[in-house]
Amino acid sequence: MSAPEPPAEPGAPLVVVMGVSGSGKSTVGAALAQRLGVPYADADDLHPEANIAKMSAGEALDDTDREPWLDAVGQWLAEHDASGGVMSCSALKAVYRDRLRHHAPRAELVHLEGTREVIARRQASRPGHFMPASLLDSQFATLEPLGADERGQVISVDQSVDAIVQSYVDQHTTTESRPR
Questions:
Q1: Which of 99, 132, 107 is nearest to 41 (CA)?
Q2: CB 25 within 8 A of CB 88
Q3: Across the beta sheet with 14-18, what order do the strands follow?
Q4: Which residues make Cβ contacts (< 8 Å) with residue 36, sequence separation at least 6?
Q5: pTM
Q6: d(Cα 52, Cα 44) in Å, to the nearest integer?
Q7: What's the CA gap between 90 and 43, in Å, rounded?
Q8: Given CA atoms 152, 154, 157, 162 in this order, what sign does their dihedral have?
Q9: What is the pLDDT of residues 72-100, one digit of tens each?
Q10: Given a cut of 80, is residue 129 above it in pLDDT?
């Protein structure tokens, strides 16, 4: 059993690590949370059983399926707004990210971006995950890049987890130190 994490400083980062299935959201999210000293959660753990059953059967979720799930993710973010936190969540469409920001307006996004080939290789090494590789094409078809009005950054997954985390920290520190 690990020691509890120290409480985060007020205004600690509130981050959603997003991307298609297999991009490394869970691994990067957990590493980023540890580095920042804030709690971590995986949106996959908040899916209702019906969503998991549907995805396990190779069926893509529709927006109606996602609504209660996105609200649960948004609620977690809202509960961690004051102390900071990191959530891994696909958040593929801008409207999904808008729904999360409705609950937690200051949440920032880290889009883990990679080619279909790189992501497919990563997915192939994850036996037993409920998202079958056959749904990867639908994930890429659904993915909407971050808009100019969305607070966040895009980081390539074609590097180590430590390098991805360091890229976020470097960019976040630079952004935070700029006068507003």
A1: 107
A2: yes
A3: 40-42, 85-88, 14-18, 108-113, 152-156
A4: 8, 12, 13, 15, 84, 86, 169
A5: 0.85
A6: 9
A7: 8
A8: negative
A9: 999 999 999 999 999 999 999 999 999 99
A10: no
Nearest to 26 by CA among 13, 14, 36, 17: 17
- Which two three-digit tokens encode residue 124? 């192939």
Query: Can you read off the two tokens belonging to residue 2?
Result: 């690990």
Tokens of 95: 């409207």
Two tokens, residue 142: 């659904």
Nearest-CA neighbor of 119 among 92, 93, 151, 97?
92
Task: State how beta strands 40-42 and 108-113 pair.
Answer: unpaired
> DSSP string spanning the chain?
-PPPPPPPPTT--EEEEE-STTSSHHHHHHHHHHHHT--EEEGGGGS-HHHHHHHHTTPPP-HHHHHHHHHHHHHHHHHTTTT-EEEE----SHHHHHHHHHH-TT-EEEEEE--HHHHHHHHHT-TT-SS-GGGHHHHHHH--PPPTTS-EEEEESSS-HHHHHHHHHHHHHHHHHS--
